[in-house]
Amino acid sequence: MSATRPSPVASDKFYRQLPLTARRFFLSLVSSPPVSTHAVDRPLDATGDMDPLRLLLPRVQAQPLLPLPAGVPAPSVRPRLVPRRRARRHRNGAARMLPASAVASESPWTEQDPASGEKEERFDWLDQWYPFAPVEDLDPGAPHGKMVLGIRVVAWYDRGAGEWRVFEDACPHRLAPLSEGRIDDKGRLQCVYHGWCFDGRGACKFIPQAPALGPPVHTNSKACVASYPCVVQNKLLWFYPRAGPEHSDVLQRKRPPFIPEIDDPSFVTSFLIRDMPFGYDVLAENLMDPSHVPYAHKGLFRGLPRLVDPGRYEYDEEGGVPMAVQVEESSVNGYASSQGPGYSKFVAPCTYYGSPASKKSEKNKPHLMIVFIIVPVAPGRSRVMWAYPRNFGLWLHKITPRWFDHIGVNVVLDSDMYLLHLEERNFAKAGIENWQKSVYVPTTSDGTVVAFRNWFRKHCGFQVGWAAPTVDQLPPTPTKDKLMDRYWSHVAQCTSCSAALKAMKALEVALQVASIAVVGLLAVAKGTLLTSVAQRAAVVSAAVLCFVASRWLADFIQKKFYFEDYVHAYK
């Protein structure tokens, strides 16, 4: 049975400016033909329903072609109605549709009408726990500085209490970074600028410049450093970005998101941490998007099953197919979704985890999980912590060095890093609040991406609630070798990769020394120890092999620990 849509409207000024031919074409578009249920070329939105069309009109004049929901007043306009006219129909009975460039998928993107008076619950960015780093990458003998949520913080190990502490990364004396300091012989955090020392509560315990017989200036509240509540959970150090005694017992009220599989002794888990040169929202939607994997990471995930799309006769080399992603629940605290037997869950603002193989239940634990910790750092900067807990291949995990696993993960992160960096700038140019108007997401494969953007719009107003004043402007784009640098974004933060790099550099030097030594031996012992041609050939071969091995190792170090370009055209 066909449905009749209300005709759109256009103002006199806009309509009269059109040439006669364009007016006739316009009239054919704005008519209200019955839509056949047998149409095969109609666009679908992320829920599988027909996508509402929008005319090629200025934004202030574009009207919805679908009836407004009950209780939602129609927008007030003062147009002249255009006479109706029957549109031409295809031979199969379907009404003619607008080209793809003239439509927008709006069903999954739920707009809030200001006239309805409804207000979405706002997400409180400061009333959340944020991950600092994996504990296995933190050296208890030194302080560690990072930026999280726009504030600089320093983590250090309080030997007296046997706990990690997180402070504001600024000495109250002259605001020098405490992360450049040291742990003194009494286990206190010392600022290396003037030697001020602080205990685990942030209280100043020693000011070298203050006379011993003078007033106790170190007891003044201005001499204290802000100390944030922190806790170690799921092998990560978390902190709460509000200092003060009123927040000291925040753990009694709420804790960081907990994933039981990470602490399960039958599972093995190891984290990777890396800084990314694009913002929190771009990182989040990329990690939540399964359909980009066979294309942006072509050839990196070998052995994945080839899915079948019923009715399709043509498959590309990468094997991309539709994905039935369904968002099951959504609130200010995140959302949950499913895809076939798998599931995923977003716990706002940082935790996204799931399993591609089985739904979560107490009796049926997934054999493999994927965990992404998404950290807002600053405008245009973010941080990811990646782990995949699993209860198989335990022996392989024990014999494989952690740095070797990180090499493969870094290649995956490199493969779409430049794409996302430029994508963010394209979003900024269009206006992040215009995300839905700038993109076209007609399939269910984009379900989790649309769900995140809906959450980010409805509960956050398209903005991260930074804990400190920030300039909401993207940094300039550096050269590709600096943008995709691995050393400062990962290796310097990873104890395993740092140790491997140090050992490989030592081996490279040893190979070079060995090649020179062998050549020297050949020159000295040419007529004494090395009398035959075969002996001299063997020594020369050894020298050449040592030199070639040192050059190969230098190239390996450069590509795996510093920079390796990723050219999609040749993958």
Q: What features would you highlight for this structure?
A:
disordered N terminus; alpha+beta; globular; 3 domains; 571 residues; four-stranded antiparallel sheet; seven-stranded antiparallel sheet; 16% strand; Naphthalene 1,2-dioxygenase Alpha Subunit, Chain A, domain 1; 20 strands; Rieske Iron-sulfur Protein
Structural notes for this entry:
The protein has 571 residues and is α+β, with helices and mostly antiparallel strands. It has three domains: 130-253, Rieske Iron-sulfur Protein, CATH 2.102.10.10; 260-304 and 320-477, Naphthalene 1,2-dioxygenase Alpha Subunit, Chain A, domain 1 (Alpha-Beta Complex), CATH 3.90.380; 498-570. 26% of the residues lie in helices and 16% in strands. It contains 14 helices and 20 strands. The protein has helices at 12-16, 20-30, 250-253, 260-263, 280-287, 293-296, 394-399, 402-415, 417-430, 435-438, 447-460, 480-483, 495-524, 533-561, and strands spanning 9-10, 80-81, 130-134, 144-148, 151-158, 163-168, 182-183, 189-190, 197-198, 204-206, 227-228, 230-233, 236-239, 272-276, 325-331, 334-339, 342-347, 351-355, 370-378, 381-387. The strands form five sheets. It has a seven-stranded antiparallel sheet, with helices on one face. Strand 4 and strand 5 form a beta hairpin. Helix 5 (280-287) packs antiparallel against helix 11 and helix 13 (495-524) runs antiparallel to helix 14 (533-561). The two termini are 50 Å apart. The model is unreliable at 1-15, 20-107 and 109-117 (pLDDT under 50).
